[in-house]
Amino acid sequence: MQKVISQISRFVFTSVLVVLLLVLAVVEVLVLTNEKKEQSPSQLAVSHSNNVVLANSEGDVAGDMVETQIVGEDARPLIIKRYLEKYKSPLAPYSNLIFELSETYGYEYYWIVAIAQQESNLCKKIPENSHNCWGYGIHKNGTLRFDSYELALRSYAEYLKRQYFDKGLNTPELIMKKYTPSSNGSWAFGVKQFIQQLESGDF
């Protein structure tokens, strides 16, 4: 009789243990599923350095937002392109070149674009036939002109490195002191604002 009771006790214990393990497994699956749902991207644009999630509503028949995740190096040229297209800038076809030049000269991708936005509304307000979107080399004695936007970009990218970044002028405030010393601070404020737009993707 004692042997039978012992066997029954073992059976009951084993059964309870199996049920508990099954319950724990189901709970773990449910928790993991919920975490995965919460981590799915739903923002228009989330940026941290080179990692960006961009959303695009074009081409969706139902009108729902179509999301495209761009990670790492690929994000920055796409940000430049979308920003320039958003503001209908004549620099839009040169977005890849802008990124390549910033990489070549070793400064952040947003400088050329942000300064062009501050100086000329992204090349929409420039001296006629100058292709000069940055207001450099423009003074009472004459205007620096280029035959194309490509030539202007190549010249300006090198100039920015040589005259500013190589000399430790690497913030909007420091650049402003040499670039436009008569500014009351609005130049640096504007450039910082445009940099923030590019970095956040909020445009």
Describe this structure in words.
- By secondary structure, this protein is mainly alpha-helical.
- It has two domains: 1-40; 76-200, Orthogonal Bundle (Lysozyme), CATH 1.10.530.
- 53% of the residues lie in helices and 9% in strands.
- The protein has seven helices and five strands, in the order αβββαααββααα.
- The protein has helices spanning 2-38, 75-86, 95-105, 111-120, 149-163, 172-179, 186-200, and strands spanning 45-48, 51-56, 66-70, 138-139, 142-143.
- A hairpin with a 2-residue loop joins strand 4 (138-139) and strand 5 (142-143).
- The termini are far apart.
- The relative contact order is 0.09.
- The model is unreliable at 36-71 (pLDDT under 50).
Short description:
By secondary structure, the chain is mainly alpha-helical. It is 53% helix and 9% strand.
Annotation keywords:
single chain; 203 residues; mainly alpha; Lysozyme; 2 domains; two-stranded antiparallel ribbon
Q: Major β-sheet, in short?
A: 3 strands, antiparallel
Q: Portion of residues in helices?
A: 40-55%
CATH architecture of the largest domain: Orthogonal Bundle
Number of strands: 5
Residue stretches low in confidence (pLDDT < 50, at least 5 long) are: 36-71
Beta strand %: 5-15%
Structural class: mainly alpha
Counted by DSSP, the helix tally is 7
Average residue pLDDT: 79
Order of helices and strands: HEEEHHHEEHHH
Shape: elongated
For the biggest β-sheet, the strand order reads: 1-2-3
CATH level 1 class label of the largest domain: Mainly Alpha
Radius of gyration: 29 Å
Q: What name does CATH use for the topology of the largest domain? A: Lysozyme
How many angstroms does the end-to-end distance come to?
81 Å
Give the domain tally.
2
